[in-house]
Design brief:
This protein has 427 residues and is of the alpha/beta class. It has ten helices and 19 strands. The protein is flat and about 75 Å long.
């Protein structure tokens, strides 16, 4: 599949330009850490501490700032034990010679049309316009992104976005091959399921594929346990049938809320995804200890209301962050990467087939068909795997075709510009 700009862990020209702009202060490390960057909250990611804007200072003051650039190898892999420090260590202002901060870094806490709200190291929140040229919505700054802010007079603009460590995204509704970013640089994705309106296992599997594709750790959180006497049985079924770690909780009674909070207790970022009415907003309020997100009752027909209308990063009392996302009614898988995690049992069987290109239909020596016949693999799970696999393959083909067409258009534009330039010079 052709490389796309902005995908987590993938290189891009824009990311290479960012490495020319952003570096780590030589010999400086976050407060409370040793020379390895290890402190009370574990390893502190380089993108969260000690960032300086080199070229911005050079343009404004002609000052050269030394330091090694921030590459992808400098960012630790996603893990619950590798998480950012407390909010106070996020970002760093860069003071100019006259004491005015002209360029600094921060993290996007909310996105609006054409602008974002960014929190800096001191906890200050700035609204800035987005000045990053993007050809794909996936490249636009989203909640959780680390960004470079530059002030010119009264104007504050986001001039670049740091390479993403993880990216939670979904395919845009309507069969489009474009992807929509939901949250960046998250450590754990929690698939939230309301026990009062338990969705089908196929819906949960689809959400798990999207969650695993982000590159973060994944849990299933069953909410509203106070109205479900069989909550523990449902959790056992999800764990055994879907292979996902499951937490049972209730925002009303407080049961299991501490377990959910522990997912981000080391200063990490937890993202909640799920259908409308699953109890995400109530869970956020329970985790924060205050009503920071509006909630509403389930409709009379049992369908949830869209209480959350935008994605927002909320600070937790324990030092971590939580992202509440709007309810997802149509969830399109982005690629086949998440299938290997969400369907690890089926993928392992498929690797044991006699033929590498086995279609799992009539071929001899098919381990998948053998598991179906032997009862160790259910027909429901097999059909769900095949359906999501076909959807991911179709989307990848559509995406490749779109990217190839965009590349051809760019080549034609460049050729026309070169011809006009040569004609203007009389060649």
């Amino acid at each position: 599949m052709l490389a796309r700009l902005g995908r987590a862990g993938e290189p891009s020209d824009r990311h290479q330009r960012l490495e020319d702009h952003v570096g780590v202060l030589a010999g400086e490390r976050p407060h409370g850490t040793d020379e390895r960057g290890v402190g009370a909250h574990g390893v502190v990611p380089h993108e969260g501490c000690g960032l300086v804007v080199r070229s911005a200072l050079q343009r404004v003051h002609g000052t050269r700032v030394s330091g090694r650039s921030l590459g992808r190898d400098a960012v630790p892999p996603p893990s619950k034990s590798v998480a950012p420090g407390p909010p106070r260590t996020y970002g760093r202002r860069v003071e100019s010679s006259n004491g005015q901060a002209d360029a600094w870094t921060g993290r996007v806490v909310r996105g609006d049309r054409g602008s974002v709200r960014v929190v800096d190291a001191e906890g200050g929140v700035t609204t800035a316009r987005v000045a990053v040229p993007v050809s794909d919505p996936l490249d636009a700054p989203c909640v959780g992104d680390w960004v470079v802010l530059v002030r010119t007079g009264d104007d504050v603009a986001v001039t670049d976005v740091a390479p993403r460590r993880t990216l939670l995204e979904r395919a845009e509704p309507g069969g489009s091959s474009r992807h929509q970013p939901l949250a960046a640089n998250v450590d754990v994705v929690a698939v939230v399921v309301g026990l009062d309106q338990m969705p089908s296992l196929e819906k949960v599997e689809r959400l798990l594929v999207v969650a695993w594709s982000s590159g973060a750790a994944v849990h299933v959180v069953l909410t509203k346990a106070d109205v479900a006497p069989d909550a523990d049985d449902v959790a056992h079924d999800i764990t055994t049938q879907l292979g996902a770690e499951t937490i049972v909780c209730s925002a009303r009674t407080g049961v299991g809320v501490a377990e959910v909070a522990a997912l981000a207790s080391t200063g990490g970022t937890l993202a909640l995804v799920g259908s409308s009415g699953a109890g995400k907003s109530s869970l956020v309020n329970a985790l924060v200890g205050d009503e920071v997100v509006a909630t509403s009752a389930i409709r009379s027909d049992g369908r949830g209301r869209h209480t959350t209308v935008r994605r927002e990063l909320v600070a937790l009392p324990g030092g971590g962050w939580i992202v509440d996302t709007p309810g997802l009614r149509g969830v399109g898988v982005t690629d086949s990467a998440g299938l290997s995690h969400a369907f690890a049992d089926v993928e392992e069987l498929a690797r044991s087939c006699r033929f590498g290109d086995c279609t799992h239909q009539v071929e001899p020596g098919c381990a998948v068909r053998g598991a179906l016949d032997g009862g160790t693999l259910t027909l429901r799970r097999y059909e769900s795997w095949r359906a999501l696999q076909r959807e991911a393959e179709w989307l990848e083909r559509r995406t490749d075709a779109r990217l190839a067409a965009e590349q051809n258009r760019q080549v034609r534009r460049t050729t026309r510009e070169q011809r006009r330039f040569r004609r203007a010079r009389g060649h």
